[in-house]
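How a chain folds remains the central question behind the approach discussed here. The record that follows shows the chain in one-letter code together with its fold in C-alpha cell form:
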Amino acid sequence: MLDQNQLKMRKIDKAIVHCTDTPSTMDIGTAEIDQWHKERGWRCIGYHYVIRRDGTIEVGRTEDNQGAHCKGQNRNSIGICWVGGKGEDNRTKAQTESLKKLLKSLRARYKGITIHGHNQFSEKTCPNFDVKEFLKNEVLV
C-alpha cells in the first residue's frame, strides 16, 4: 500500500464496501473489473481495492484519485469491492480477514473515517451483508 505522505491527498472520511455481484466460482480481480468499467465508458476501475476470493487485496485506483463506485459519495471515499456476492454473502474466510485488515489500515491512516455498505447509499443490496452488524462483531481498532 502507498504511504499517505507520498500522495497529494483529497479529504477522505468514508470507506464504502461493495461486491462484484458475481458467482462464488468466479475469481476475478482488478484487471477484469477495470475492463468492465472501461466498457461502461469510465477511464478505469472505479474501486480503490478489490479483495479476491483467496483474500488477496489488489489495488485499483490509488487513494489520491477520486473513485467511481458510489453516486454522490466518490469525492471523499475509498471504494472496496470483494469478489462474489451474487445475491448472497458468500465471502470466504480469507476475504473476511482481508477486509478486516484493510479496514483497520484505513482507520489508522484516516482518523474518524466511517465505514458503510453501498446499500446505505443506494437501492442495491450490495455488498450483500450488513456492514453495520459486521462492524459490531469485529474489532477494527
Summary: Helices lie at 30-39, 93-109, 131-137. The chain has one domain: 10-131.
